[in-house]
Amino acid sequence: MDANRTAYLETQLQDLHAQGLFNHIRTIDSPMDARLVVDSQPVINLCANNYLGLANHPLLREAAKQAIDQYGIGPGAVRSIAGTMRPHIELEHRLAAFKGAEAVITLQSGFAANLATIPALVGRGDVIFSDQLNHASIIDGCRLSRAKIVAYAHNDVDDLRRKIAEETEYERRLIITDGVFSMDGDIAPLDQLVAVAEEHNILLMVDDAHGEGVLGRGGRGIVDHFGLHGRVDVEVGTLSKAFGVVGGLVAGRQNIIDWLRQRARPFLFSSAMSIPDTAACLAAVGLLQASEERVERLWSNAAFFREALQGLGFDTGASQTPIIPVMLGEAPLAQEFSRRLFEAGVFAMAIGYPTVAQGKARIRVMNSAAHSQTDLEEALEAFAQVGKALGVIR
């Protein structure tokens, strides 16, 4: 291949390095847990979405092993042809009961769930009202739909009302929001959005990826958190964060789920979830149904860590959840802060543009129920040490 064909990529890569935006991907050499071995170094893990500490739970591991013995590993087909196996159906029924929804469909990931759902519900001639800080998977799903996309100011219901009033030509309309915003840790005003949707007869969809297993009774999610069962048309979630495995789900009205089985392209044209993953997800649902202890411990750890960071003088933004951003501003500072944390035994990656806006770089702290008090206190000592060395705090 002629190197000149990709020379432009070298220039762009050099620019990323110069701006402090090049993403150095570290390698994990141990099971996902509160403490890891990363690039051969033992560290405290404040980086993963393993909210409830289930990614290495013995019950999930055993469920996956037993499923392999009974069903094998891969389904060998898409769900709509020959890939739907009994564990897939059991998981969907259990999730529907857990979330108090009429029905659930599962997909390969939360990202795939958004790509599946949005283009199946709206298309050309339709209008989508989307929060400005919605996740990339929502943005991509909206683009794929070819509907008109109208962004409203973040969590600003008044601005949403203005944007709705301005759009007078449409066939169908859809409001979409994240439930918990993954970079800032704040929560969408879903109760107010429901009121707007009902007032204007607009379909409402919430992506609850970071609320699944975190918000609501025993982690039942944002719809449960606000007590809005039956009033939110579509609730997208993930099984790769709090549930500790991988996969996506869409919960909602029976006719919507039935329609997705007929028209959602990732469901129709990509292989089903693997059987050990599906079995492990079933085990995770069982654990959440049996006890709220892990969810309570998650929130207790998050409250302790947030208050301690604020006490040290760090800016933790508008977080309302176990996602705690340590706001630093410029990407090179965030990169250096992350590097020094790692040297001090704490794994917490820098987040910069394009994941967040220019000038909004941060360290995103991800608490979990798996962390002990000792883990958190050691991590705070490292934050204090690095923060003072870099002049972020006094």
Helix content: 40-55%
How many structural units, i.e. domains? Answer: 2
Task: Please state roughly what percent of the residues sit in beta strands, choosing from under 5%, 5-15%, 15-25%, 25-35%, 35-45% or over 45%.
Answer: 15-25%
Stated plainly, the CATH topology of the largest domain is called Aspartate Aminotransferase, domain 2
Q: How confident is the prediction overall: mean pLDDT?
A: 96
- What is the gyration radius calculated from CA atoms? 21 Å
Treating each run of at least 4 consecutive H or I residues as one helix, how many helices? 15
- The secondary-structure class comes to alpha/beta
Low-confidence stretches: none
| H-E string | HEEHHHEHEHEHEHEHEEHHHHEHEEEH
Pick out its properties.
alpha/beta; 15 helices; Aspartate Aminotransferase, domain 2; 394 residues; three-stranded mixed beta sheet; Aspartate Aminotransferase, domain 1
